Amino acid sequence: MNERSIIVRWGIAGPGNAAARFVEGLKAVDGATLAAVWGRDADRTGAFAQHFGAPQAFASLDGMLAADIDAVYVGTHPDSHAEISIQSLAAGKHVLCEKPAALNVLELVAVLTAAREYDRLYMEAMKPPFFPLYRRLREHLAADPIGPVGFVRAGHVDASLPTTHALHSRMLGGGAIMGIGPYEAFLALDWLGDLKRVQVMGRLTAAGVDALALFQTEHERGMAQLHAGLDLFGRGDALLTGPCGYVTIHENWWNPARATIRYLDGHQVELDEPFIAGGFNYETAHFCELIRAGQRESPEITHALSLGMARLLEDARRTLDVRFPGE
Q1: What are residue 122's phi and psi, to 5 degrees?
Q2: CB of 197 within 8 A of CB of 218?
Q3: Are strands 8-13 and 71-74 parallel, antiparallel or unpaired?
Q4: Cα separation of 49 and 196, whole Å?
Q5: Are the C-beta atoms of residues 31 and 93 closer than 8 Å to each other?
Q6: CB-based contacts of 198: which residues, under 8 Å, 6+ apart?
Q7: Which alpha helices (DSSP H) does 168-292 contain, by range?
Q8: Partners of 32 in beta bridges
Q9: pLDDT in tens, 39-98
Q10: Alpha-carbon distance 324 to 65, whole Å?
Q11: 3-class state of residue 298 by DSSP
Q12: The whole model's pTM is what?
């Protein structure tokens, strides 16, 4: 196969809400197509395939992995991310796995080991850094800096999810830390470097997952205040602070479209970069280009960064004694 010229044929594992957004984004990606879908519920899988025009719907994951596809988007619940990723890599498929990449660091190490063993591209689907606004912000701060970022604040709470939602299930790897926290973990690690320690306060639901978590983190280059919750409501912005100014990434910061940079000398800059197709298209296009270039790791969402996010999330929830089956 000449990877540099292929049209990337995608198979989807898990025909849920995340997969639906992925497919909407895929329509805006040149040189990529939806080829197949697999899910545990045959009726739901068939309906998804019909609605989004997937040529093939499979009743078994093995069946889809034996089909003519190049890459798998893992959009299932977190409890099965590692298992499906490893199975897909072993079948010779590249894997883009929805966040969080795994339930814990141990699972993620097994996934990354499989990616190396089977020589396939693996990336956690962390979308913010690929948005036009985030890229433009980096370029702007390189030309007109606020100095090294030393403090990050970010968070989001969403009480709109019913108690039947997977984020309320301990069996499925739920909780606010796992469902919302990956974005906040990414932002802190991206701007402040490797994690040194975590301090956490929070409360749990009757089901044994975190309903609200407030975590302070110390990193190589600074500190962060992060929060995530399921029983309060508030859309989140984000703050990046340096010695010569600060950046507000306006809500919803994880789908970034606007930012304001205020400088110590009084001048202010507004950035406005709308996004298209829901935003999943940007990370997917990046992933497809990596396949064509024969790469096995993203320079943006590195394996080390995913391990750092996994460690931060695991440390935070274990401080609150949120443990999943088998841990």
Answers
A1: -135, 135
A2: yes
A3: parallel
A4: 45
A5: no
A6: 215, 216, 217, 218, 312, 315, 316, 319
A7: 176-179, 181-192, 280-292
A8: 8
A9: 999 999 999 999 999 999 999 999 999 999 999 999 999 999 999 999 999 999 999 999
A10: 28
A11: coil
A12: 0.97
